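User:
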Amino acid sequence: MVGLGLFLFGLILANPLQGQFVERAASSGVDLNYPAVLGAHTEPGLDPYNVGSASAAGDLDGDGWTDLMVTRTGAPCLVFINNRDGTFREEATLRGFGAVADIGGIGAGDIDNDGDTDVFMVPVSGLRYFLLLNDGSGHFTEVAVARGADATVTIESHRGQSVSMVDYDRDGFLDIHVSEYLVSRTSENALHAVLLHNRGSSAPGYFENRTLAAGLVQPVISDRIDNYASVWHDFDGDGYPDVFIVGDFGTSQMWWNNGDGTFANGTGTSGLENSADAMGVTLLDYDGDGRIDIFLSAVSPVGLTNIQGFFSDNRLYRNLGNRRFANVTDAGGAKESGWGWGTQSLDANNDGWPDLVVTNGFNETTGSFESDSTKFFINQMGTFSDRSAAYGITDTGYGRSLVVLDYDNDGREDIFITQTLGHRILYHNESPTANAHWLRLRFVGTSSNRSGYGCEVTLTAGGRNQVAVYNPTNSYIGQREPFLHFGLGSSTTVSKIIVKWPNGISQEFTNVNADQILTLTEATTISGSANAPAITTQPADVAVAKDGAAAFSVTAQGSPTPVYNWFKNGVRLDGQNGSSLNIARVQPVDQGTYTVTATNPNGAVTSRGATLSVTANINAKSVARWWNEALLDGIRKDTPDPPVHARNLYHVSAALWDAFWTYERDAWATRHEVFTKETLSLPASETDRTSAQREAMSYAAYTIIKQRFARSPGTVATQAGIRWLMQQLGYDPDRTDATGSSPSAVGMRMGRQILSLTLNDGANEANNYADGTNYVASNPPLVVRDAGVGSGVDPDRWQPLNLANTVTQNGIILGPSVQSFVGVNAKNTRTFALTRLPSGFPVDDPGPPPRFNSANRSEYIRQAKELILISSQLTATDGVTLDISPGKILNNTIGTNDGAGHPSNPVTGRPYPSNIVLRGDYGRVLAEYWADGPDSETPPGHWNVIYNQISDHAQETHQFRGTGTILRRIEWDVIGYLALNGALHDAASAAWTIKREYDSSRPITMIRYLVSLGQSSDSNQLYYNAAGLPLISGQIELVTAQSSAVGGRHAHLAGAVGKIAVKAWLGSPPSVTQTAGVGWILGENWVPYQRETFVSPAFPGYISGHSTFSRAAAEVLTKLTGSEFFPGGLATYNFNAGTGLGFEAGPQQNVQLQWATYFDASDQAGLSRLYGGIHIEADDLAGRRLAVKIGADAFNRFLQLYNPATLSLPGDNSTPAGSGSGSGGSTPTSAPSTGGSSASSGGGGGAPSLAFYVLFLLLGAARAWTRHKNIEGK
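Assistant: Predicted structure:
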């Protein structure tokens, strides 16, 4: 079969069925009153090149011949009635259209099921819609207000684009969906871009607005409705038509029909997100696989082929099934057509493969698109080739709507095109008829809508199947004719036609002759009568451990096959429309009662309620571990803010510490509290004591987490999680009485005391962490979608990003936004052990990063070049391999990447085996793993995860510093969390203070700025600037006439001669099923290896937070465990081929990251940020060096609390740290308890010694002088 396919493909290429179009608009009469001058409009803000000129084909007078309707901006419509001789006559006034003017979009169909064609229109700008009913003879009366279809508005005018007709609820009557453009968010948005529901059998052709009830109110992505069209089809095969809304500025959306009148937004998981600036749309099965695919005409404002700011960027999405699409544009061959508008599929040569036509042109100030020609792409068995000239498609200008029709009924599809300015075009198809047979189908619904809109047809002829969907309104302001056309090639007979009618019933027709117009009428009786759904197997109750998997299933019978919708506690679960419901990682918030409805046009039935219970083996972990994990769960659902997360980890660890030691016998004789302590009379029974200890620790942690996450985006899940944990532990989460000496009261008092003591610690928690430092960005925002960095930019300062759609790395959608400095208050936040100058700056100043405007410019440029080189390595297709075994890499000296690995594993005594991986896989995996942790817990949380994994390792002995008594697991966890999170909190405070003070740029600004200056290598070449970017052959090059010629390496950059091209990662792919790869791009468009909805973190670059967090953690873990090596001498993390990466396909092969020591892991975390393109080397190495002292000081501070008699032990390599900035020593206060209690205002643990103060002042004076010399512009 493969050989036969290749033979046929070669035959088609060698002897294509060549077609020919001849332009006949004037001779046919459809060019009458064409827009010779640009249509004027009184509505301010409307671009006359961007509105109006819609058209629709339909049989208005019922004679079997296709007529045409054309709209005009600011003028009445035109109606061209087919004379049946290849010509048309204009009869708008005669037919009742004369009073309808300034129309933006048209839809035609039988909306009252009376057997004729009715018309719905939306204005270019106006206060209501228009509905024209056909009296059966082709004469129309406007009845929108009387029929409830007017959608009258009062705040902002309708700005109509396309009109779609669909029976979305399968009641047998056509409903109406409208697309609108340039409509702001107001209280009337449910009256714009409406879904009008036909009231059906009770009142045919009367409507009610169901936009809000259906969940389709726009906008949903930005603050403005920017929709051009919508197309309807049962993409997921559940029997109900789904809708793909086509939007400008990346706002296209896929909505799945739930089958009960509502829709679920499935854009993010469909593979259809980020669909460029899309305008036109058509549906077709381009590759013959039986699934309907999507083609969009589109442009993009950032890209590789147009230096003026926009380039043609059409999209072809292949339907993969299971609600997934893949962007196959590049392989499809129809990516570039110009500034695309109307587009349709057609079979121009009747060979049985759907071709594409796109009309183009626009008056865009940043590019020359006025002369764009309409493009015709011939389908060569699943790939497209531009054959415009060969087929006679040669028009240029301001193309707008495009209609496919066979206006002379000769079996060859013709093309009608309107323009906003200029003649209309009517391409008459005069292709050869030999071996070009055809079949045109007309549909008459009976129980389905009379027009048959929504029929899915499978036609078998010549040994192959063709699949198409019939809905002429599925287009951008250009409705095609009311026939479904199939080319048959040499076949004279169609062996089988299967029609799946909109009501779900399938009907088969066999042995149909070719070359005819065939009317298919829906059978009134079909074998297997229609039945309402009935549930035969009910879903069962499920109990599953937290983080486990749960599944519910149901079985229902009915005809047509029912559609399922799952509910939890009565609330619909978006996207859950199958007979089973699977929850891959159960969380406490998932607990509840689940029901499922089964629906078809004959009725609906609801299942019994099935209960999901989340269980826990509480004794498997210490209570401290449970609360650490509960906090990590909250962090994963919160807006990423590493300093805030580090602060929460520290404070909850301190609460666990203070409560733990409160219930240890005689603990306060040798231990010190962090914030608060109580002296109690402990139970004599050890069982009672440890039980009271767990309870007090739980109430303390619960109190803090509950308040700290009350305003989190994930607060519902977080609060459910901590309430569940309290109940699993046997405690009442609703208890509030903190009086007395009960463990719950003690724990609540401690938690409240810590909240009170830290509320004003400088983080500005009371104001939701809003900037309390008055930071003002030095640079204007960088619009990532635009080339370059903009004007007036200081290349040494941070430049906030302006993103069209911001989505955090843990999936929180923020929409269009300009970054503000996240974590800016760290400068003022009270620390654990970190010492600061009076200004708040850390005593340990790393000095400034490389600056462009300094004597260190060459280093600035070198490090920017290094990022470009790394970016060019983010592909596995080059075949380059690396050995990433701990025996070959890492084991660096402090602050370098000079390591050559470890000679052997000290635990096994054997060398580490080789670990060969593809270089491109390694770089991408590295960037992905360390970005924010495997589950987006941010770096502080990630190191807590690592600590927990270390603690669970079979070879971890839980001995403090690796010697002496084996600690109880609860004590091991308590001391580890405090030591680790105290250090991480200090790392955040130091790194973010330095970020604010040095305010350094990110690589995206550095690289784009240097590119904008020009090249510095050759003064005799173009674009020279001595301060610019040096050229490197094969890496950083000038685009020349020779290099951009056809076949050249820069051929796709033609027109950019003299500009700098860099070989780099090509940017976030449209679908996670694709790999972007590496290639030549204009340097002014360079982006880091990140999602296009993230790009770079929202704070300055220097120093790297990842590097600082990671090295500080490694220092603590080494001291705590007594060894720098992971248990067993090796830690690993696996990435499976093809599925391991988050925003593109990969890795190409399996990759296992390996580390021998904590320092190896921390150095790799810092290095990963270079592969991710968001830090330069200086950011990483300075962070590592600074963190050595931060980690050591934090551990010594911890030693003061854990064992004050021993301030430091051999191997600490540091002096004891003080009690932390702002603590001012311990100030005893009275606590509301029956036992003795005290609280300190900050660092806790007693006042520093006189020797410490002397040392602090000496260091402060020295550091102040250094900082004064080093901080430029401060």
